[in-house]
Each structure stands twice: as structure tokens, then as C-alpha cells.
Amino acid sequence: MRTRSTHSLLLPVLAGFFLAAVVLAAPKKKDGEKKEPAPPDDPGLVYKSDFESLAPGKPPAEFLTLKGPFSVAESEGGRALRLEGEPIDGCVIQVGSSFKGGGTILARIRAESRRRVHPMFGLGLHGQSGFFLRIAPATRQMEIVRREEIVTSVPVEWKSGEWLWMEMTVSGSAGKWQVEGRSWARDGARPEAPQITALCEDETLSGRATLRGAQYSGHDLWFDDVEVRQEIPPSQTPPADTKVPAKTPG
């Protein structure tokens, strides 16, 4: 009978030690720690999330809370961004990175009234000094607001406790911008034409997108399916197959 060599007996043991060392050295994931999925190859996309991949608790790094108790929380069998019922006024959270020029912010928002006390809520672009689209259930108005002043308003349909889509777009170029707003029911169709518009003659618009709320009713506000996009101007670079005329000898 053959006797196995010492080397052949040691190989399985050494392999086991090596595998154990690799497993122990690998970084451990904290309980509940989840990151947003990598964004697709889309140059205009600034931020997009339905919050399902995020652990309940503090908003992800892509958000900056300026005022208000914002958190990721369970909602209707899923997850969404919650703004708790107190404090009741002036709550703002910024979304994604800062950018200049045109863009769009889209989100679903759910708010509730209490008897005759109503919330206000909305979304915007270009930081605190930019425009934001706001719904004021107390007056049944959708408003374009800038620096706390109502630029223009139109009547809007809103039902307490139901999800509502809101979308605001800023387009144009330096010195001539157009602001457009839309809102529609959760299961409804997006309006082809904007329901509200305003013009702006600022040379530059820049900053981060925002979500805003004033929970006068004392009920939580909810934000979901948030998407922020930057308007990408047409490239000024000639196509790769463009032929450059040869210089004429002088």
C-alpha cells in the first residue's frame, strides 16, 4: 500500500487556512446598510430613487436636510421619504448634486388635511433662491413660487391622503428661462401641456433640487419616486466623421 506524501496531506489544510483568511479579511456590511444602485449611463440624470433599496432611517448621502425631520420609512408596504408632522413649517431637503441651467424634478407626494387645516408641499430647482412648484390645498391652487413670493397660480385638483405626481421643468438659456409645472393623480396620465408657466430673465440659475413641506395639519408628508434631471445642451463638437478641409498651400 502506498503512503501519501507529507506535501499532499498538507495541501488541503493550507487551502482551508487561506480561504478562512480571505473571508475574515473581507469588509463586513453593517446590518441594514444599503446603498443606492449605480445610476445608468445617462448624462442628464442627476438623481433617481424609489427608496426601496434603502434602509429605514437617515436619508442617504445624496440628500441634505436644511430643516425638518426627514427620514426613509415604511409606507404602504414599501419605503418612501417621510417628513414628520412636526415642526410644521418651512421644511426643506436638497436632492442630488448642484447644477447650472435647465432641468426637471419629478416626484410623487402624499399629504393629508385635518378638518379645515391643510398642508402645503412642493418641489423645486436651483436651491433656496430658485423656483419651486407648490400646491396649497387651502386655496386649491398650484403656484410657482420664488423667494417666498407667488409668481403665478392656477386652480388645481387635490384629494387628501392620495398620492399626487408633481413635475417642474426649467428650460431655456441665460437671460431667458421658462418655468413649467404639472400635477396629476397617481394613476392618471401626465398632461401633455404644462398647467402653469412663468418666465425668468436671470442670467444664471444654479443650485440643487429641493423637496419642501409645511405640515400645518400635523400629519406626515411623504415623497416617493424622486427623479432629478439636468438639461444637457447639444454638443458643439463636430461629429467624428466630419472631414476637415485641407489647407491650400500659400
How does this model look, in words?
The protein is mainly beta and 250 residues long. It has a single domain, classed as Sandwich (Jelly Rolls), CATH 2.60.120. It has one helix at residues 6-25; strands at 45-49, 63-67, 70-75, 78-83, 91-100, 103-110, 120-124, 131-136, 141-146, 149-155, 163-173, 176-185, 196-200, 206-214, 221-230. Strands 1, 3, 4, 6, 11, 12, 13 and 15 form an 8-stranded antiparallel sheet that branches. It has a 7-stranded antiparallel sheet with strand order 2-5-14-7-8-9-10, with no helix packed on it. A hairpin with a 2-residue loop joins strand 3 and strand 4 (78-83). The longest helix is centred in the N-terminal third of the chain and has 20 residues, at 6-25. The protein is globular, with a radius of gyration of 26 Å.
Q: Report how far apart the termini are.
A: 94 Å
Compute the number of structural domains: 1
Given helix and strand content, the structural type is mainly beta
Q: In CATH, what is the homologous superfamily?
A: Exo-inulinase, domain 1
CATH arch. level architecture: Sandwich
* Mean pLDDT across all amino acids: 83
Number of strands: 15
- Give the fraction of residues assigned to helices: under 10%
The CATH topology comes to: Jelly Rolls
